[in-house]
């Protein structure tokens, strides 16, 4: 059997402030660090032993992975980083408060920007101070590939070639693979693996720091998937993520 373990990074500083983060390189909060460590303890308790790891270029994902591996006493595992696992670009709404934005534009519009499959937020100018073009970690990326806004569809188009060409290839020599990334880059992978419709994925939310495990047979046919933890607690956490984009009452 083959196992894919997905973990969304722990709570970040901008998660705590309820801001659209996207490619902004914000750090974990103390709660986020604890979530990551607890995720590692859960994996260890459940007997999981990943053999190779993948993460994004953003520190909230990298530090989550570091803490997961620390908790598992598996810091020595090989780790591969790629910008293709970065969060969805939120374009010009990056850095804005989600509830305030919903109050201005309406809950439904913000839900579409956050969760719809083929709706892009307003585009960011490439010379804007928030643009990835101004960040040296992306010097390797040509201008035409720099995301200045993305829908989930765009994120899937960025993530899945890497998943199919690199992560899937890792299963040729490994039975368990760990991917620590972001809410939307992981939602893109989940949509493809589960064959979810565009309407189904809009209401699917991934909480921070909770391992989400996919089991496959040796031919990589999906056998099942599950979050690790108390189902009632996880359901409340997923609902909390969904409510982040609603105007305050």
Describe the protein in words:
It is a single chain. The chain has 249 residues and is of the alpha/beta class. The chain has helices at residues 13-17, 30-45, 59-72, 98-105, 107-115, 152-170, 183-194, 198-202, 231-243; strands spanning 2-8, 52-55, 79-81, 176-181, 212-216, 222-227. β5 (212-216) and β6 (222-227) form a beta hairpin. The longest helix has 19 residues, at 152-170.
Alpha-beta classification? alpha/beta
* Radius of gyration from the alpha-carbon trace, in angstroms: 17 Å
- The first-to-last residue Cα distance is 48 Å
Uncertain segments of ≥5 residues (pLDDT<50)? none
Overall mean pLDDT stands at 95
Strand order of the largest sheet: 3-2-4-1-5-6
Largest sheet: 6 strands, mixed
**What percentage of residues falls in helices of 4 or more residues?**
40-55%
Strand content: 5-15%
Which overall shape is indicated by the principal axes computed on the Cα atoms?
Answer: globular
Order of helices and strands: EHHEHEHHHEHHEEH
Write the layout of secondary structure elements.
Elements: E1 2-8, H1 13-17, H2 30-45, E2 52-55, H3 59-72, E3 79-81, H4 98-105, H5 107-115, H6 152-170, E4 176-181, H7 183-194, H8 198-202, E5 212-216, E6 222-227, H9 231-243
Helix pairs in contact: 2-3, 4-5, 6-7
């Amino acid at each position: 059997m083959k196992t894919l373990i997905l973990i969304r990074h722990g709570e970040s500083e901008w998660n705590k402030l309820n801001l659209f983060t996207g490619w902004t390189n914000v750090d974990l909060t103390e709660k986020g660090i604890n979530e990551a460590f607890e995720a590692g303890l859960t994996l260890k308790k459940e007997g999981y032993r990943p053999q190779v790891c993948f993460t994004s270029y953003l520190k909230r994902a990298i530090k989550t992975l570091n803490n997961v591996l620390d908790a598992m006493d598996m810091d020595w595992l090989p780790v591969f980083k790629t910008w293709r696992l970065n969060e969805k670009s939120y374009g010009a709404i990056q850095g804005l408060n989600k509830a305030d934005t919903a109050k201005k534009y309406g809950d439904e519009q913000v839900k579409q920007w956050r969760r719809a499959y083929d709706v892009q937020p307003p585009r960011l100018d490439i010379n804007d101070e928030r643009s990835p073009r101004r960040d040296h970690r992306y010097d390797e990326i040509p201008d035409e590939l720099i995301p200045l806004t993305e829908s989930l569809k765009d994120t899937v188009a960025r993530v899945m070639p890497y998943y199919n060409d690199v992560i899937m290839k890792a299963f040729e020599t490994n039975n368990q693979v760990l991917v620590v990334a972001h809410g939307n880059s992981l939602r893109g992978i989940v949509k493809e693996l589960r064959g979810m419709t565009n309407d189904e994925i809009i209401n699917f939310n991934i909480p921070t720091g909770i391992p989400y495990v996919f089991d496959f047979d040796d031919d990589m046919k999906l056998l099942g998937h599950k979050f690790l933890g108390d189902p009632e607690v996880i359901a409340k956490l997923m609902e909390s993520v969904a409510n982040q984009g609603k105007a305050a009452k």
